[in-house]
């Protein structure tokens, strides 16, 4: 099979792609998919992504941890949001977390409807993810969660990092892949410096969570690949 890799720059465009036989990689670098990867790597039993805060509350009596983020902040009354520092072994080991975020969980649900398989990507598990995708006889769609259906830099940069690593293993690329890889080539020597230009970086700076941003840009600190199994994200 001649495999192809494509980059969907925003969830608003996902209906333009045929993904029934594709592995879709959901990307929300700041911070949902980074936190999900870190949590699964730290022994969380499962993470259940839900669309909204009300859905999250329906799990309140099941003994799960409830995590809700909107516009970068923890929703009042929830255990935590989507800061990776909330997903340590001490907090999440052996636990199930129900999570809703502004962008990442929406992208997950859109992918889930049609994709052959949905996995989670972040800089934290870049090599493990690429090794897995290389070994599968499937097309790949890199789905950037963006910001409220708009393009964003950090997710596109990660997509570019994946394209760069997979270029020799795939035969066909779309223009979005080319653009993402070129952007990554510009930024990779100092991702944090490059991302100071991004709108989301400025939003997060106003919330005083620079440590989160730096954490999410680390390369290959995790081996786990979270995969969607029914409604639950579990370790592949």
From TrEMBL:
<dbReference type="InterPro" id="IPR036702">
    <property type="entry name" value="ComB-like_sf"/>
</dbReference>
<keyword id="KW-0378">Hydrolase</keyword>
<dbReference type="InterPro" id="IPR005238">
    <property type="entry name" value="ComB-like"/>
</dbReference>
<protein>
    <recommendedName>
        <fullName>Probable 2-phosphosulfolactate phosphatase</fullName>
        <ecNumber>3.1.3.71</ecNumber>
    </recommendedName>
</protein>
<keyword id="KW-0460">Magnesium</keyword>
<dbReference type="Pfam" id="PF04029">
    <property type="entry name" value="2-ph_phosp"/>
</dbReference>
<comment type="similarity">
    <text>Belongs to the ComB family.</text>
</comment>
């Amino acid at each position: 099979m001649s495999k192809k890799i494509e980059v969907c720059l925003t969830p608003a465009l996902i209906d333009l792609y045929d993904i029934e036989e594709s592995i879709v990689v959901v990307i929300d670098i700041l911070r949902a998919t980074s936190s999900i990867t870190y949590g699964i790597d730290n022994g969380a039993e499962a993470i259940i992504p839900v669309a909204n805060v009300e859905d999250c509350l329906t799990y309140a009596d099941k003994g799960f941890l409830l995590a809700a983020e909107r516009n970068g902040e923890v929703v009042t009354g929830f255990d935590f949001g989507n800061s990776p520092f909330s997903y340590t072994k001490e907090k999440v080991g052996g636990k199930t977390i129900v999570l809703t975020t502004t962008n990442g969980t929406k992208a997950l649900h859109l992918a889930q409807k049609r994709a052959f398989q949905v996995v989670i990507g972040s800089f934290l598990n870049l090599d493990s993810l690429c090794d897995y995708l290389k070994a599968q006889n499937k097309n790949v769609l890199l789905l950037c969660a963006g910001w409220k259906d708009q393009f964003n830099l950090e997710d596109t940069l990660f997509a570019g990092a994946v394209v760069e690593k997979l270029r020799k293993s795939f035969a066909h690329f779309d223009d979005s892949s080319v653009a993402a890889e070129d952007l990554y080539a510009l930024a990779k020597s100092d991702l944090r410096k490059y991302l100071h230009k991004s709108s989301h970086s400025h939003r997060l700076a106003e919330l005083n969570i620079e440590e989160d941003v730096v954490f999410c840009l680390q390369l290959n600190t995790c081996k786990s690949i979270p995969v969607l199994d029914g409604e639950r994200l579990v370790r592949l």
